[in-house]
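Homework help board

Subject: predicted structure for assignment chain

Our instructor gave us this sequence and asked us to write out the predicted structure in token form, then describe one feature. I got the tokens but I'm not sure how to describe them. Can anyone check?
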Amino acid sequence: MPDQLERDGPLGRRGKEVDFDRSRGSSFCREATNKVWRSAMTDVEIERVEIAAPRGSIEALEAFYGQRLGVPTAVHGDSQLELHIGHSTVQFSQTTGEGHPFYHFAFLVPGNRFEPAYSWLAARAEILPQLDSENTVFDFASLNAHACYFHDPADNIVELIAHRGLAESAAPSETFSADELIGVSEIGLVTPNRARAAEALDDALGLTIWLGEPHSPDGLAFLGRRAHTLILAAPGRGWLPTGRPAEVHPVRVALTGAQTGHVDLTDAPHQIRGEAAWRDLQPHPPQGSPPRHSPCRDLRRFATR
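My token output:
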């Protein structure tokens, strides 16, 4: 990998500069965009994400994230794992069935630290190329961001994304570490009725669509704000960069900076809660102890497909 970085530069095999319009799910070269970003809540952040993991994957996930990437972790028996990513927590709960749930989520990198973050990741994991290409860096001009992708041991499609001008490091060093990850930037919510989901999230939590269109057959809808986003996707819609069709699997999300409240989507096993409701109803356990009143207690029942 170091030889490849020397040949291709610090951003890997970039090839032709391509702007990926993620809301439409296709890659294309363009001169300009006429998208209008709706004003969004300025403080909303993803505090906690709870997702299912295939049976028998917790140990491999801990070894990958904790030992290889150096992410702080907490293991609760053999069925749950927590990752502490900056201001966010990601919890994996093992399924009891034979299903193989997978998700798309993204970790936020300081806006001026993408190149060292790419090099750090490339030394520890295989970076996924663009479909039918060797390009491994995605330049999202419409987001003013760079990103790259990798698989974890549960086959989740995980992204590192850096938005230029956001959360930039004041004293950057040459090397990158997991301690610089700011938090969860994106989580995909797969639902057959994105318009209804968007309306429910707007009504209950004040989350507006700032990019995309929920009525577009193959499009995505981005809710929240730039770099802190819930992504609504239709089942079967391919995730970047592999094109693997999206599937419905249970997700629970806690947000800060949103209106107080909660949403249980009717068309998918997804629950999203605003800050006060989450903290009041789902208290965090002491470090090292099993989760109490876990809002993820039903994940294994849902994820048995």
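Reply (TA_rk): Your tokens look well-formed. For the description, you could write something like this. The chain has one domain: 43-302. That's the kind of observation they're looking for.
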